[in-house]
Amino acid sequence: MTAASTPVVTVIVVAGTLLAALLVIPAAALARVATSPLSGIGAPIGLPDPADTPLATVITDRTGEPIARLYDQFRVPTDPDDIADTMKAAVVAIEDRRFFSHGGVDWRGVARAVASNLATSGAAFDGQGASTITMQYVKNHRLYALADDPAERDAAVADTLDRKLLDVTVALALEDRLTKDEILARYLDTVYFGNGAYGVAAAARTYFATTPAELTLPQAALLAAVVKAPSDFDPVDEPAAALARRDLVLSAMVEVGSITPHQADAARTTGLGVVEPLAQVERGCVAADPGTGFFCRYVVDHLERRGLDAEELRTGGYTIRTTLDPRAQQAAVRAAEQQVPPGTTDGIANAVAVVAPGRDAHRVLALAANLDLGPDAARGQTAYALPTTAVPYGAGSIYKIFTAAAALEAGLGIRSEVPAPERYTSEVFTDGGEPYTVTGDGGAADDITLQRALALSPNTTFVALLDELGSVDPVVDMAYRLGMRESLGLAADGGRTVGEAVRAQEQASFTLGPVPAIPLELANVAATLVSGGVWCPPTPIVEATDRTGAPVPLPRTPCEQAVPEALADTLAVGLSDDTTLGTAADAADAAGWDRPMIGKTGTTQNNRSAGFVGATPQLAAAVLTWSNADPPRPVCAGDPPHLCTSGTLFGGTVPAETWFATMSPLHDDLPVAPLPEPDPALLHGRIADAG
Fold first, then answer.
1. Where do the Penicillin-binding protein transpeptidase domain residues begin and end (predicted)?
2. Of 98, 99, 125, whose CA–CA distance to 113 is shortest?
3. What's the confidence (pLDDT) of residue 690?
4. Which residue of 40, 318, 549, 640 is surrounded by the most CB atoms within 10 Å?
């Protein structure tokens, strides 16, 4: 290429008549023009930047295996060396056979197009062979990478002199900066091949389930054939037209000498060879790998909160390696579905969240439910992200953990005696203007230790503890510190948050857990307790990288010492009897569970929801089971569970059974780890026994 002698068409409009003159202009000057605003096209456009080309974002599990792709245009960038020579030869033969000899503009084609335009005296510029591969790349980049609305897309492909001159100018500048192979690779990365495939890598996968490097001659010829008009030459909808044009490409390849007549004849004997069905990559979290839709949704929400908006995720070409553990995810899905089978238990949701404890991060390993993420309820799908969405009826007595923690912080000991009557009337709190009175199972004739109360879960004991505390404030504060931060921040009536409403109204029932609760946050509470009281925000991200492989910094909320380690360790021991002597003992025994762990069941009024939260030093998890029918109804824990008029669902039934079904296989290869020792100062406390 000789830069100084490269010509360009300059069109002058005089008195409504188009006069064309071929003028010789140095390429260096054209390059300056190419980076300047050009009128009549919309926004200023310089040289095409591959960084602007929309690429699919890939979300993977912790091992790097993809679970979902987010995109507007499914496109995978390809190195020039990874594209088969036959693919390059095919597209050059049919689209621009003088590609390797011209300087970005085919002047013979331009002259022919200008002459045609002058002959018709029309405003349109039909191109008539004038568009080279370089010019097509310029146009396609403007169309697929830069145009944001219909008007800009129309302008990008308008048959006007303004648009053609822009293509010419930028094409000449590109040829001065890039090699032919680089331009050809960029073109093949950008062009649309139909059926949702943008770029040759997506097309090779979609039509042939292969890679650009492995494309055969007939496959490459078909892809080159499609480019001209993807709808007209669609191999699926227009197979005859596609076949005829593929054979035309083969003939063109013979004419330019890239293949022999014998090779062309052999290729013509093959059919289209398109896979059935097409190997299209579905997009979005609804199309994520089976069972991972909720995790995908959580990842997207997590990233959007940290500054990567939805459009960036669909176009930015990020790789998001998540904390999802395939083994944990499979175990959680299997357990949720076994305990509440989809299709036979309409109106009941069963959600599981698994978190890895730690003092530097709480990594989310699994988010699962008995339903899939999706819009079709008839197919067992739900639009709600069940493991990370608040269950409106609450988690029941699981919230007694927060009352116990507040009592320990106030000076009570885990082995202090507390009252457990069958009936208790508060001396502090009211309900509807009357003293707040509770009854409930788990009562005892004599006082019991706080540790025993956590296992037996008498409602009366924990309302009595609230009386000792004098206010619900320290319990709400403790719930927030240990991890129920988003749940307490949900909107309540009167423009207040749930936490604010509970405090303002001094709702003693808070200790019984009737407020909305998020399964993942409950799992994180357990993780906090077995992490020495260190709260970390649950995170689903290992790392995020951009299209170049560079790390993407994401804002991170630091971990914090939510409660003193001594308190957390002592409370963990206090929660260790539920699976041996308490309300989850039957479920633990049926599962053959014999490891030290913390646990707490919960059941809400009318048995509309129930839960179980627990942890070993290695893993934490929570399960909530609830009626998601409209209107809600009580749930009976049968085989299978079902909606009923008088519920029998309790935290020790379906939720605990789901928990053990999830966690048992995950601990098979883990050593038995002991719970921490309680702090001696917190065994009997520094204040007198409650009551």
1. 364-608
2. 125
3. 60
4. 318
